[in-house]
Amino acid sequence: MRQVEAQGAGTTFADFVAGTAWADVAAQEHEAKRSILNFFATALGSANDPAVTAALRTLLPFSGAATSAVIGRPERLDAMGASFLNAVSANLLDFDDTHPDTIIHPAAPVAAPVLALAQARGFSGRAVLTAFILGVEIECRVGNAVSPLHYARGWHITSTCGVFGAAVACAKLLELPADQISNAIGIAASQSAGIVENLPSAAKNVSVGNAARNGLFAALLAAEGYSASPRAIEGPLGWARAMGDEPDMARLTGGLGKSWEIAKNTYKPYPAGIVFHAVIDACFKLRTKLKRRIDDIESITVQGSALLLARGDRPVRNERDARVSIHHCAAIALLLGAAGVPEFAEATVFRPDIVSLRQKVTAALDASLPDGVARLIVRLHSGEAFEEIVMDAKGSLADPLSDRDIEAKLRDGARLGGADWDADRVIDHVWRLDTLADVSNLMKSHG
User: Fold this and answer.
1) Which of the chain's termini has less CB crowding within 10 Å, N or C?
2) Regarding the domain with residue range 4-267+400-441, which homologous superfamily does it belong to in the CATH classification?
3) Tens digits of residue pLDDT in 68-79
4) pTM of the predicted protein model
């Protein structure tokens, strides 16, 4: 039995993770599968993106044994390289799952290393699901404990907290004992990084990829006897205080196993920042009222919280900017009546009619509106004014995507991303993941 002075969040988490079996998480199975389906949808959609191709070219010469698939592509890498690439591709389109309390995108940094390690070592689908659910739980709890000030200080929370989820999930998959799981968490704390300033560039995705790879690395180091402080997260000179303020311990470790963070997960219908979804939905509704009189629009005002303006009141210089732009989201939704991957691609971003309509959009603060809510006011040259407010965007907990919606998203991702993987085969294998004796059957294109 460990001494009292060694107790810390790492100890508490490790004891919980080591003592949790499939039967304890089985009630979360369906949501975990939805999250993994969405992970494949987004990774397949980015399989041939230039950023993924460039990262693959960079890593290939240094890869060890090619044990693990690069999703949507024929190449394989070692497990750490595949973890990095698959997390990057899953996060690249701003289309991944979202934990509303923290705005963490849980799956990319956790599913990528778990699946890569499982393929390399021949683990079962049930082991993968157990590890994934536990990794998401710890990742989001760490995020809960430091939100919202951690993100407000400029830390990219998916990256910084994702590494803890990846470390826990991989440690569980490796069946490490509690003391080594605690060490993996502490090692992960020393590898946590990612900044919000890089959101409009592929550098954002580098830190998500690193979260996946570094979490796996932390678990492997712990398995080889590396040690770390059990208070690496919350200690006086630990991660939380170094990267923010004093953590909320009740939200960090309280009630473990009584409620599950993955049950709160949401899935995006649009490849844009989650705070822009209400803007898009409001525009769709107003477009119907306008009866296509888009040319008559004099001005468009989008009102929302400080978070909406901080994230989206920006010039649009490229397609990455467009995915986090109030102005672009309003323009495509009103003019095109669509907000899918093609509407955020470069060809659409620089269309003269889209550019012209973007210039009519003004973002305005309404401090009375909660985060995730948007009010739209459109004025016509005639003087007529139309207003719409969306409190619960499509894809939110109040209006969630269905299983069929996520399946359709995966098929679209495979098609639009040019991935040579059988989408229906992936869908079938994910829904049957708990029955797969070896997850390698999922991680291949055909057969």
Assistant:
1) N
2) 2-methylcitrate dehydratase PrpD (1.10.4100.10)
3) 999 999 999 999
4) 0.94
